[in-house]
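Q: What does the assembly look like in three dimensions?
Context provided by user:
Components: two
Sequences:
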Amino acid sequence: MISIINRDYVYEKVNTMFCNAQKGMEHSIVGKSLGDIWGYEVFQKNIKKNIDKCFTGRTVKYEASFNVPQSGKRYFEVVFRPIPVESGKITHLLAETFDITDLKLTERKATSREEELRRFETNLPIGFLRCGPDGKMMHANRAFMMIMDCHDDKIIEKTNLRSLYAEEGLFDLHLEQLMDGKPKSFGRVNLKTFAGGELVCRISSFMIVDEKSNPCFIDFSFEDSSRELMLENRLLQAQKLETIGALAGGIAHDFNNILTTISGYSELLKNDLPESSPLAENVKKILLSVSKARSLTKQILAFSRQIEQEKVNINVYDILKETIGFIRSAAPSGVKIKSNIRSGEYPAFADPTQLFRVFLNLMTNSIQAMGDNKGIINVNLKLAKDKEVQKELNADIVADEYTVVTIRDTGIGMDQSLLSRIFEPFFTTREVGRGSGLGLSVVHGIISEMGGEILVSSKVGEGSVFNVYLPVSRDTIQVAAKSGNNKRKILFIRGNKHESRILSMALESAGYNLTISSDLQHIVRTIEDDKTRPDLIIYMQEEKHARTESIIKHFLDNGIKIPCICITDSDQDFVEEKLVNSGIVSQHLTKPVSLKEIINAINLSLS
Amino acid sequence: MPGILIVEDDNDLRTMLKVSLSRRRFTVLEAENGKEALTHFKPSVTDLVITDLIMPDEDGLKVIMRIRELKPSIKIIAISGGGKAGPGSYLNLAKALGADAIYSKPFSVNDMIFKIEELLDIKQEEIK
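A: Here is the predicted structure of the complete assembly.
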């Protein structure tokens, strides 16, 4: 479009294209000002200054968009050229206007596409890296920086990818494989982050070559596999526990049958041999081995049933305090237990007896990790918000808040290969016969069942740290036992051991009306008074034999017919049968007893 | 002599019990599982039943309940070697269902025989 404009900003001449574009005739445009045609606001803002510049004698070129009748917004390249006259005074200018709308749109499309690609690359959750043919880094996206723990993009250009490979020579092997120009997937590769950490990434790559097949650069993608690995491990662990649990139950069952046969025939032999016979001694040894095997199968069965829990509302602080008290009384004198726990609300929905077992197991392991029975165990208790926990665990979590119990020891520590196996059932560092190797796998099972997590870190020679994360449960959840067996009176006969205190705590949380006693006189008074007479007696044996017998004798002598649940140690051979078949005890449980087991026994006794 | 029915799916264990009890001159009857026990149960010649709890076909708890119905005066001893829920819970259940004595495997057969004699009110001298 061509037009001639005078100093009054009025069109003096326009060509046909101009008219066509404006959808008007020449005479309807000539004589009108630019403001009339393009709008006064547009004129004042964009056009006038360029025209004024042109009238000073310069050619002005600029791009602008205008509204054109019936076509809407169009983009133009405008060139104003002064038309000089002989006097040198400029009275008119020539305006050439080119419609560049199509060009502009294509260009914009290309730019926005490029921007989109750039944004895509930046936001891609996969690390992207471009390197020179020698591995020198050229450009990396945000995900790469994040995965590799790099906070300064200037470092990228100064680094060679080779230096981030944990395994020497592997990068060159990859380079060699890329030479054919085909895309390659290298699977999981161990890397070192910029901050010095360790990382496993899935790496894919391909080399870009020029026309003469010379390598120009190499593009890499990095996918962080740590999470994937962790999930795989956890699934494997859960499956292992489940399988072993089922298997162990089955094996223990069959094994107990075999043991019964062995002990039965041994007893027959023993009966036939005169006591003075030297052979009787051998038979005794067979029976002793049977009893050892029996205690092992009991442990295995305990493992397979320990995962099931009856949960109540508890304060983790109470359980931890009792466990520390228990451990202090049992630990060798050289082991110091420093507890940094402040009383407060650490609510959880759990089986207190199981939680006690978790802490007890962890602290016992800590003690056993101290070679010369000397060292320090540090116990910490705190609340942590979900974000903090998520960061520490690098995993999906279920609660908004967690109680974190940390048990740190100055023991011999563990190396990586040991660490990766400690939660496996039957894995033990102790010599054969000193522990079943079930402790930590049970700990893992109990915590997982609660929706919690356990994290362990360790250094050889320095010690280990166990972090237990338990979901905080502030809602008071109605417990099954509470609604059913409301306020049944139970006389709980126990000493003052921490384990029995935990159990009474658990029973009270479950809604039972508990009277606790350890004194025979008080027991008798409680039973004889109609107001306090219990519906059920639970007797937890703590000191061996003597007291049990005096209490049982009292019941027998006085014809007391109150259902009685007796809880005894598992290492007492065949004593339990005598107790339970004596007619006094209605139900018998062996330690460790879970809340679920005891509630089942209570229900059976009261039904 | 009193008749004892042993319900146990483990052959070796059952045979051992049979040998031990026969030595004490009991008349021993055997069943390999709960189903067989219930089909062939003879109230007139059986004074006591020793039953395993976890068995294929009818399990021991059912045996206890059915046999009690068939002969209320019968004495019952439950034995168990555990399983998924552990020996305790099954045995406690058996006790609640009316087992006169319970033993978790492996147990002392001498203790059990002592108990059997007590349950059946047999004087030691009678056997010897």
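Follow-up: The domain at 125-224 of chain A is CATH 3.30.450.20 (Beta-Lactamase).
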